[in-house]
Amino acid sequence: MKKEKRSFGKILMVLTLIFFYLPIVYMVIFSFNSGKSLTSFSGFSLRWYRHMMESHTMMESLYTTFSIALIATAISTVVGTISAIGLSKSKKIVQNLMEQVNNLPMMNPEIVTAIGFMLLFITFRVEKGYVTMLLAHIAFCIPYVMLSVMPKIRSLDPNLADAAMDLGATPWRALTKVIVPQIMPGIVSGALIAFTMSIDDFIISYFVTGGGVKNLSITVYTMSKRVNPSINAISTLVVLLITAVLVLINVAPKRMAQRAQKAELRGHRIVMPTAVAVCAAVAVLVFVKVNGGNSALPYEGQTLHVYNWGEYTGENLLNDFEAKTGAKVVMENFDSNEQMYIKVANGETYDVLVPSDYMIQRLIGEDYLQKLDKTKLDCMDKLCEDVIGLPYDPNNDYSIPYFWGTVGIVYDKNQVDIEDLEREGFEIFRDPKYRGNIYLYDSERDSFMMALKALGYSMNTSSEKELQEAYEWLVSCVQTMKPEIVTDEIIDNMAQGRKALGLIYSGDAAYVMAENEDMGYYLPESGTNLWSDAMVIPANAKNPELAHEFINFVSDYEGAYDNSSFVGYTSANQEVMDTLYGEGGEYEGIDAYVPRSGYPKDEVFEYNEDTRKTIANLWSKVKIAASNAE
Question: Does residue 281 surpass a pLDDT of 60?
């Protein structure tokens, strides 16, 4: 019986280890994938490691992560240890009160702490960036150090320091030579926890940073919004680094113990220096990589701040622009036009923005953009005629197209009959035949577009009656069809054929179809959203001249080709469109790549604040209905 229990315990332990470590092994394997897919291995390659090393964003985030972790660990360890020692000499009521205060940050939800820090920095007008992130990390690491040190202090003889001073030691010598060695295990544990918490933190860092400063967690988050195998490469690097540190922490003291009599003391002394040395070496190497200079170039020493969608730039675009101009590009990413608007409206400065059509209309109307100096632009004659002169900016006085496309239906040809699509259009999302086998896109704007078009209405309607009908259409869909409401994960999921159909952007559909020949893209006859994202220069931009240079570079053939071939969205450059869609092109025969133009029922979104609020409120109710239906 005992043997059976032991065998069961071993099996359970093995299964647990597999559960925890198999995803890491999977990630490491796919970091060497030659293709873009995160789920289909197409061959061995170091492509994504090379891309990682060439990416300023990723290498800077690595440097930021480890430099902040090391500094925050050092400061919080010293402050936390001294605070714990001082607290041990305080009155009991003070100790109890301070222990509760110390526990509060650890028990408090991170999002609450993050917003608190953010409001603090905003209130005192502290410019967010590296320093604010460092201060926040020090603040939330100190409680963990104190929590680790306090039990060790309680276990000491309270008369130990007094005895040392009676024997002639000064207070400082009694502290450093008597007290600290006794509590060293607690100090080391607290330091390691602080270091781990700093390395791991995302939520607090996300809210307290600015100026393009990002740690690794923020970078991976923005990269994960779309298919980017560089996530695997940089994550593998971090895993290997942490593994090396753990090995050194565990092996080094034992090695030292074999060479000396004072094993415990010397082991403790080697732990933190070893970890710090390894991480410091990485930080130095990354710093050298990041800050390696170029020879004198036209914009040497200047910085361009770009605010763009996550994973919306070509593989080599930023590196090539920096190599050409000598400037440094600081790229920040947003998840929605509304998130971008809030930052711009609050006065944060960027040189280039890449908002969508309706948001450009709003920014123009509220004087947040400056007119382009067309004497500095040489790209207008390279652009596709279908994507210039759109209603939101008829003369392109403020904007130059970046990407454009449509919103349609991606479908598995083996599961969906084309006749169903032609007959039903967007109504196919309420066809019981496909119940539980569809994706809806988590976008209030596009979901209501689908519903309004299915009902025969304009997607720019402001009629409360029509919007209510669209709401009821969507509620009916989520309650009866059991769709999975997703965002960019639809890309890889549909590439693997995991559901029959879904609502998708044309650029994402182009990637899906390139990965899986069984996938198709359909635009309903009822019309759809003909969208455009464009580059604009904010009114408060600090470097508009370099911004014009960037717009030219992105719109030129090489920059536009790199952008479009890597991301998959349709380029505004006509020659790039023809090349990628033409014979031998990467998207040859993939009709999702070329947007439908000139179709009277296709529309461009127009900005209407009242309608936007109504749709946002109704979409929240749709999602509640979807969760209740489950």
Answer: no
What number of other Cβ atoms are within 10 A of residue 503's Cβ? 25
Longest dimension (CA), the chain: 96
Distance separating alpha carbons of residues 332 and 309, to the nearest angstrom: 8
Distance CA 361, CA 358 (A): 5
- The token pair at 417 is 């009959």
Q: How far apart are CA 396 and CA 164, in angstroms?
A: 79
Q: In 89-177, where does DSSP find H-type helix?
A: 92-107, 110-123, 130-154, 160-166, 171-174
HEC string of 255-272 equals HHHHHCCCHHHHHHHHHH
Dihedral angle over CA of 107, 108, 114, 115, nearest 10: 180
Q: Cα separations (Å) of 83 from 89, 95, 170, 235?
A: 10, 11, 20, 35
Share in percent of the chain as helix, strand, coil (round to 5): 60, 10, 30
Please state, in angstroms and rounded to a whole number, the distance separating the CA atoms of residues 57 and 215: 10
520 phi/psi in degrees, rounded to 5? -130, 170
CA distance 589 to 583: 8
pTM of the model: 0.79
Backbone angles phi, psi at 166, to 5 degrees: -65, -30
> What number of other Cβ atoms are within 10 A of residue 315's Cβ?
21
pLDDT digits (tens, 9 = 90+) for 154-189: 888 878 888 888 888 888 888 888 899 999 999 999
Measured CA to CA, the distance from residue 325 to residue 351 in angstroms comes to 16
Instruction: Name the DSSP letter for residue 455.
Output: T
For 511-563, list the strands marked E by DSSP: 519-522, 530-535
Sign of the alpha-carbon dihedral angle for 416, 417, 418, 421: negative
The encoded tokens of residue 180 equal 């600290």
Query: Is residue 304 within 8 Å of 352, Cβ to Cβ?
Result: yes
Predicted confidence (pLDDT) at residue 267 exceeds the cutoff of 60: no
Quick: pLDDT tens for 400-441.
999 999 999 999 999 999 999 999 999 999 999 999 999 999
Q: What are phi and psi of 93, to 5 degrees?
A: -65, -35
Degrees to nearest 5, angle at CA 200 with 141 and 240:
125
